[in-house]
Amino acid sequence: MKTSIVISDLLPSEIDRREVIRYAGGGKDLGELGKMLDECIAEAKSELDYRVCYREFEIKALGSFLDLGFSHVRSDSLAKNLSGCKKIILFAATVGIGIDRLIMKYGKISPAKGLMMQALGAERIEALCDAFVSEMEKTGYKMRPRFSPGYGDLPVDLQKEIFQALAPEKSIGLTLSSSCLMSPTKSVTAIIGIM
Question: Which residues contact 156 (CB under 8 A, 6 or more apart)?
């Protein structure tokens, strides 16, 4: 099996404070939440470990039946997303286990701060995925929006084949439970159509 390409030096954009507050359920006025966010950022920065692995596959479609190169699946929503594509990029990304430890720590001693760490982790993994897509676009790819298991009618258990295809356990330390939950939790797997 062809191994995944690993990118460990990809840094996402600066932290979008308003996006973190939005994930935390806050309003536009940062106020006290802004102070808590500053504390969370200061503590979490050294714990974030940005890693991505990916592979390219040729694909074939017959209506909603897709041969993704690593798996066969039926999905109307993914077929619509990949319409006109001949290849995909399959990727996994994580910001590491450190943020999970902080979420767990503060979930016990300061639920509000635990929620803010959750929101910070969510913003960071989204920013990492955006940075990865931007990096791929620099190589000349014209790409469709990313699509993950669980979106639309794409089954969550496709994760099992994604993990077989990418082996992210070895390359970026990302594991999958028998119920298809990823660890570290602030992680994403996705398919991106290449035009």
Answer: 149, 150, 180
